[in-house]
Design goal:
Distance between the termini: 38 Å
Strand content: 5-15%
Shape: globular
Number of helices: 28
Helix content: 40-55%
Number of strands: 22
Length: about 750
DNA sequence: ACTTCCGTTCTTTTT
DNA sequence: GAACGGAAGT
């Protein structure tokens, strides 16, 4: 690390800043991650700070891991450093001190799905009509209260919401569980109620650094303020232009408050962009410039203008996908690595059409988020078992797996057990004992006890084993694996494979940690993010939402679905309209409106290093219906975009003159003569794949199939459901399979 | 008790 | 398009 050579003057200021609070306003691509890691390295190497005295809060676990790696590389010593997300930090504090709040240290962490399940039980218990009191709304109210650090008694909530919060929280306690918001709220409680504990951590962490500060919410900031009294060595890095999480409570105002709450704080601005070409930066800047309230900050670069930002129109989402896929093929042929290419979209549902297009052209891809691995039913079932092993009090988990696989313990028996547990005031598992199962019929009685015995054995044998071993054992001892094998269906086969994958996940986890216990694996699973799961290096393009794209960068970026209604999203416009039309409308605390959408657009554009391609579809079929939306109003903010239109792909070029649109007028109808020169070869209307190029792309490719294994494509034919492949498999010979069922390798 | 099928409803972003 | 809930069939 050479501070003089590797850093610009502003970065150097940030890195070398001495004691006291520090605010770094860092524009997109301005090297803030480099500054922050260099600063930590500098503290350890040159200022005698021990790694364990440093707390670095990042936005994702992946970012935390990368930071640790880079520091390790710079100074060869990152052991003991706490680099984690706010939620992981909270979880770690609670693991040590949950007993101070009356929770066991072996608590479970409930994610949104678990909270919903628990919440539904609570609605039932309170005799609240789930139609009238939507569970999502109730939980949102609880979350809001928790973010304001309010307990059930002084929540400010009224009526049903108030009683819901009280019972919900009592149920969490009874189950020895915390929900996501608790991971921030409860550490606040510990620090409030136990000054000696707070003092310990204040003393320990001589230096605290927080990345993506614009996305911290009120409760997180409160925790930070407790940990770091004024005058502390607290360094926060943020960019108000990249605040895209106001909808979940993030408060950009925290940045403003920082200078007030930490008097004497030094402010450093990083305004030089090292990432993107001049054209890309200009385009992004002209979009964000339209936001009225911004910190004074001007991004600049002396990089080449590079290629113009391009824009293309497509008739529908299928054509858009194929245009993109075609352009990727071309970039690939020109030597661009596929993992340097990304496709962004506003909502997860948009990925489907893009995936189909990519498959048509045999472009390998991976999707971040969407239907996540850990959200699949079979995985959640097994995790419920595992969580119950780690924390037998977790009733929602028991209810989930009581009859999985089917063992004759249906709804009626389940209700009885819940009643009994209520009567004995104990957990559901505790009620499954010969002396407590009164009122059950003989067969159910026996079946319940059999389940209890099976589970008890499982717990005993799990003692002292690694997470992966417990996972493997649980699949078998519970009969879940056997039941799936017996089903034998294609679907069941896939589920079994997913369960195997869970064993692998546990093994992978063990490699990266010293603490390979079941409990620590479960905590890891509860707190991982989609981005954390995205494997790197593999030769594949990446598909993700604009939100997931934050903090990443790629050589070539496609921003698809640039339509009013998607970006800006319809919902954000509605909020704005209602606020406008209806005086009594109180916007929720978490509404970024169109300005947040604009920032989202900005974040997406600034991910691109060399080339940025924007696209929109004249009509789009999604959520089972077709809609026509005008091009995104943000496109109109980019000067010269029309002139550069049509560069998405040779032959498939579409020339769009944006001056024909009044992009700020919502009523504008898309008319045919505004878009000219569609290439028929690449348009595909009515599900008939055109001739030629696409099957060609598949021939000779190596693929993996779930049951047939490894093979080579010897022929490909178009079909209504995508390419139909003739594959020569190494083990089973020649077979015909649909492209949907293979993975390119 | 369990499975299957059909109609209904809801679809922004995620720690 | 999917996920959920209810109803009817095994």
């Amino acid at each position: 690390m050479d501070l003089d050579r590797d850093l610009n003057p502003e970065q150097r200021q940030a890195v070398l800043h001495g004691d006291g609070p520090l605010l770094i306003l860092a524009g997109a691509g301005s090297g803030k991650t480099r500054a922050i890691t260099c600063r930590i390295a500098h503290l350890i190497r040159d200022r005698g700070v021990e790694p364990w005295q440093i707390l670095a809060v990042t936005f994702t676990n992946k970012a935390a891991g990368e930071m640790r790696e880079r520091i390790e590389k710079l100074v060869g010593n990152s052991k003991g450093i706490w680099a984690l997300t706010f939620h992981s930090f909270g979880a770690r504090l609670l693991r040590r001190h949950a007993d101070l709040l009356g929770w066991g240290r072996d608590f479970s962490i409930y994610d949104t799905d678990d909270s919903k399940r628990l919440g539904k039980l609570v609605l039932h218990e309170l005799d609240l009509d789930p139609e009238l009191h939507r569970i999502e709304r109730m939980l949102a109210a609880v979350e809001r209260a928790k973010r304001a650090l309010r307990g059930p008694d002084k929540s400010g909530l009224k009526g049903a919401e108030k009683s819901f919060y009280a019972v919900y929280q009592r149920s969490l306690h009874k189950a020895n569980a915390f929900d996501f918001s608790d991971l921030i709220l409860q550490p606040n409680r510990i620090f409030e109620g136990h000054p000696e504990v707070l003092a310990r951590y204040q003393g320990r962490f001589s230096h605290v650094l927080v990345d993506e500060f614009q996305d911290t919410d009120r409760a997180q900031y409160a925790l930070l303020k407790k940990l770091c009294p004024p005058g502390s060595n607290l360094c926060v890095v943020g960019d108000d232009d990249q605040s895209i999480y106001m909808w979940r409570g993030a408060e950009v105002a925290n940045i403003l408050d920082f200078t007030a709450h930490y008097p004497g704080c030094k402010t450093v601005k990083l305004e030089r962009n090292y990432r993107s070409t001049g054209n890309i930066l200009d385009a992004a800047s002209s979009v964000i410039a339209r936001n009225p309230v911004r910190h004074d900050k001007r991004l600049w670069t002396d990089a080449d203008p590079g290629e113009p930002v391009s824009l293309f129109a497509a008739r529908d989402e299928r054509e858009e996908a194929q245009q993109v896929a075609r352009a990727i093929r071309e970039a690939d042929d020109n030597g661009m690595p596929l993992d340097e290419i990304a496709l962004f979209y506003r909502v997860n549902a948009q990925s489907r059409a893009l995936e189909e297009g990519l498959r048509l052209f045999a472009v390998p891809y991976r999707v971040v988020g969407g239907v996540r691995f850990f959200d699949r039913a079979e995985i959640r079932n097994l995790l419920a078992y595992l969580r119950l092993v780690a924390n037998p009090r977790s009733d929602v988990d028991l209810l989930r797996i009581l009859n999985v696989p089917a063992r004759g313990l249906g709804d009626r028996t389940r209700e009885r057990l819940v009643e009994l547990a209520d009567r004995h005031d104990c957990s559901l598992l505790d009620v499954i004992r010969p002396d407590r199962l009164e009122g059950l019929r003989k067969t159910e009685h026996e079946k319940a006890l059999a389940f209890g015995r099976m589970f008890k054995e499982l717990v005993e044998q799990a003692e002292g084993l690694s997470a992966a071993e417990v996972v493997r054992m649980t699949i078998e001892r519970t009969g879940y694996g056997e039941a799936l094998r017996r089903q034998g269906s294609f679907e069941a086969q896939g589920r079994l494979e997913n369960l195997q994958e869970l064993i692998t996940a546990a093994e992978d986890f063990a490699r990266g940690t010293e603490d390979e216990t079941l409990q620590s694996f479960l905590e890891h699973v509860a707190l991982i993010t989609d981005i954390d799961l995205a494997e790197e290096g593999a030769e594949a393009v990446t598909l993700m939402t604009l939100h997931s794209a934050k903090g990443l960068e790629f050589d070539l970026v496609f921003m698809t679905g640039m339509e009013d209604g998607f970006l800006p999203h319809r919902r954000s416009l509605q909020n704005e309209e209602r606020a406008h039309l209806d005086d009594s409308f109180v916007p929720g605390p978490a509404h970024g409106g169109i300005e947040e959408e604009r920032r989202l657009c900005y974040v997406g554009m600034t991910r691109a290093r060399k080339r940025l391609v924007l696209s929109f579809a004249e009509s789009r079929s999604i959520f089972g219906r077709t809609e026509e939306n005008p091009p995104s109003r943000f496109l109109g903010d980019v000067p010269g975009l029309a002139a550069s239109a049509g560069r998405a792909g040779r032959g498939g070029a579409t020339v769009v003159d944006l001056t024909d649109f009044d992009l700020d007028d919502d009523d504008e109808i898309f008319e045919d003569d505004m878009v000219v020169d569609y290439s028929d070869e690449y348009s595909q209307v009515g599900g008939r794949p055109g001739p030629g190029a696409r099957p060609e792309a598949w021939r000779g490719r190596r693929v993996d199939h779930a049951s047939f294994g490894h093979g080579r494509v010897i022929d490909a034919q178009p079909s209504p459901h995508g390419p139909k492949l003739t594959v020569e498999f190494e083990s089973v010979g020649v077979k015909t399979v649909m492209a949907n069922y293979v993975r390119l390798v």
